[in-house]
Design brief:
Number of helices: 16
Helix content: 25-40%
Radius of gyration: 24 Å
Shape: globular
Bound molecules: oxalic acid, manganese (II) ion
Oligomer: single chain
């Protein structure tokens, strides 16, 4: 095991940011009584505290300093090789009944699960420091903001949470001293980083998360997938808002007309790249700005949907990130960044497959072994990550801290599909759009353990993140639409369609601006489109393809609908809905019938 997590002894004035809320103090006391840590470190999130924790992490080899001339204040972390991705098979939703968790979640009975977890946590922090992290999700003055506390015995978690959330005083202020205040209880322990004792458990009714046996971000930065999505989606349904696995971006025309769009793509399908898109030269004067790259919390205001990014940092995939694919991400991660499971090259620089330039002649790979270009293994893990503050992004949207959020003109769904699904099309209306989201599918990636490249249905990119019954979640989407007098238009995109030669038909990245421009045109009511059985499709001349090296045949293939492929696709939709065992709302089953009927017209 790489993380023995020994206790640390802070100097005076550090580690003593104890909250004033008695309910929090009582809970921390209970957890400490169970886990028996050497000491308790109350995180406040100050710079001095952070510097101290970094120095300790370097001493413990939890972090390795990378070349400070090239990457100031940046560090490499190597996780245990058995612990490099989210573990969906060990992720549980623990609701009183199995029906509440629904057909897409692993369910576990709450009382039994608490008992099992308590026995795993018993004395688990002996000889270790127990960190208590107060954090806030969302802009401090947002009605959507949520307070969480994470108890952890991992110093890497503390350093990462300081980047990913608003840690410390802001959270304590928002919480106040009322015993009934709403806040999330998160307990994390590395235990012995053993895959047989790795469980990520959510108790939505108790606003509680317990994660044991892992040190990987998606399993242990409890603010992110666990609170902002799984518990968040449950609270959102109960409280009348939406918690979605979506990026949020602003797009502004040369004339200064600005729209915000959200987009739900499954993990490692390019949300960060799209959120940080730089328009190609042809789109002179157009600007794209980032509000968020992974999660959107949305509420209805005056009949429109408004979104905030609950996070304060990016936890993005390194492989494939380059100045070619995402210059803003490269600038963002050039300083004050934690790299996880990247390779280290001989001048102390970090490296990953798909970075600009030639492959290095020698590196230390993500496991700490020598690597050369002739090595069979990848130098960086395919799910190696960067953790970096949103403030590092040169294209950060000026309204990112706006408590009410930004008004959303369009919702985009999309996945990684080699065939069948055209580059872009628009839903006929809200209910049809919900159907597009509910039936979307994608080829699996390295973000979760398991086979890569298999097509799986991933409704709204929330399959691993919806914290309650997916049928109720679909109904919640349909109901939200009824509250919107100016609903966003809904689109589906697919950057990943391949030609008969097996090559990608679309160059993607910055060129996706051409698709975004059509979406904006549609929102403004002047983009051309033809009606097709699957929705409104652009004709080739409706897309601005000027100065793009693409032949007409490719464009026709990209926008084409193959009736045979769609018969299979409709069959797959029906099979998927059936597999959910009767929870799918009638309105969506109807959509399925209408889609099939439109192909027969
Ligand atoms: C992520 C994921 O890390 O979706 O954002 O897995
Ligand atoms: Mn994600």
């Amino acid at each position: 095991m790489r993380n023995p997590a020994p206790a640390i002894v802070p100097p005076n004035g550090i580690g003593d940011a104890k909250p004033g809320n008695q309910a929090v103090l009582d809970w921390v006391h209970d957890v400490a009584t169970l886990t028996e840590p050497e000491n308790i470190f109350w995180c406040g999130g100050s710079d001095r505290e952070n510097e101290f924790l970094i120095a300790e992490s370097l001493k413990q080899n939890v972090l390795i300093k990378v070349n400070p001339k090239k990457f100031p204040r940046s560090y490499l972390h190597r996780s245990d090789p058995n612990d490099v991705a989210r573990v969906e098979q060990f992720t549980f939703v623990c609701t009183p009944t199995k029906e509440e968790a629904g057909p897409t979640n692993n369910w576990s009975e709450p009382r039994e699960t608490y008992t099992k977890l308590r026995s795993l946590l018993k004395e688990a922090m002996r000889g270790r420091t127990m960190f208590v992290i107060p954090y806030l999700m969302g802009p401090p003055d947002s009605p959507l903001a949520k307070v969480g506390f994470e108890i952890t015995d991992s110093i890497y978690v503390v350093l990462s949470m300081r980047i990913m959330t608003r840690m410390g005083e802001t959270a304590l202020k928002r919480l106040g001293s009322q015993s009934k205040a709403e806040w999330n209880r998160g307990v994390h322990s590395l235990l012995d980083v053993n895959p047989n004792r790795r469980f990520i458990c959510h108790f939505p009714q108790d606003n509680t998360i317990i994660s044991v046996g892992s040190g990987y971000g998606g399993n242990v930065l409890l603010s992110k997938k666990c609170l902002a999505l799984r518990i968040g989606s449950y609270l959102a349904c109960k409280q009348g808002w939406m918690a979605e696995h979506m990026l949020i971006l602003g797009v502004e025309s040369p004339e200064g007309r600005k729209h915000y769009v959200v987009a739900a793509f499954p993990s490692a399908c390019g949300k960060t790249n799209f959120a940080m898109l730089i328009p190609p030269k042809h789109f002179k004067g157009w600007k794209v700005t980032t509000v968020g790259d992974d999660i959107a919390w949305m509420q209805v205001r005056n009949g429109r949907l408004y979104a905030v990014n609950p996070e304060n940092g990016y936890f993005g995939v390194l492989p494939g990130t380059s100045y070619k694919s995402n210059p803003n991400a490269m600038k963002s991660i050039a300083h004050d960044t934690i790299y996880t499971n990247a390779a280290l090259i001989d001048d102390g620089e970090v490296w990953w497959e798909g970075k600009d330039g030639a492959r290095p002649p020698h590196a230390i790979d993500w496991r700490g072994n020598d690597w050369t270009p002739s090595s069979k293994e990848k130098a960086a893990h395919p799910n190696s990550r960067f953790t970096t503050p949103i403030r590092n992004n040169p294209a950060l949207d000026p309204d990112v801290e706006k408590g009410e959020g930004v008004p959303i003109s369009a919702i985009i769904f999309g996945g990684r599909r080699s065939d069948t699904v055209p580059l872009v099309y628009q839903a006929f209306d809200w209910a049809h759009g919900v159907y597009l989201g509910a039936t979307m599918a994608s080829e699996t990636t390295a973000a979760a353990t398991g086979a890569v490249g298999r097509v799986r249905r991933d409704p709204m990119a929330m399959l691993p993140f919806c914290g309650y019954n997916i049928g109720d979640y679909f109904q919640h989407w349909l109901d939200m639409g009824k509250r919107l007098t100016r609903p966003p238009l809904i689109f589906n995109v697919n950057w990943f369609r391949k030609g008969t030669d097996g090559k990608f038909l679309w160059s993607g990245f910055g060129e996706n601006m051409r698709v975004l421009k059509w979406i904006v045109d549609r929102c403004e009511g002047h983009g051309g489109a033809v009606q097709s059985p699957i929705g409104w499709l652009p004709s080739p001349h409706d897309l601005d393809l000027a100065d793009l090296d693409i032949d007409h045949k490719c464009v026709a293939e990209l926008l084409g609908i193959d009736h045979e492929e769609w018969q299979k696709e409709i069959g797959a939709h029906e099979k998927f809905f059936k597999s959910l065992g009767g929870v799918v709302p009638e309105e969506l089953l109807d959509q399925s019938k209408q889609l099939a009927a439109r192909f027969k017209e």
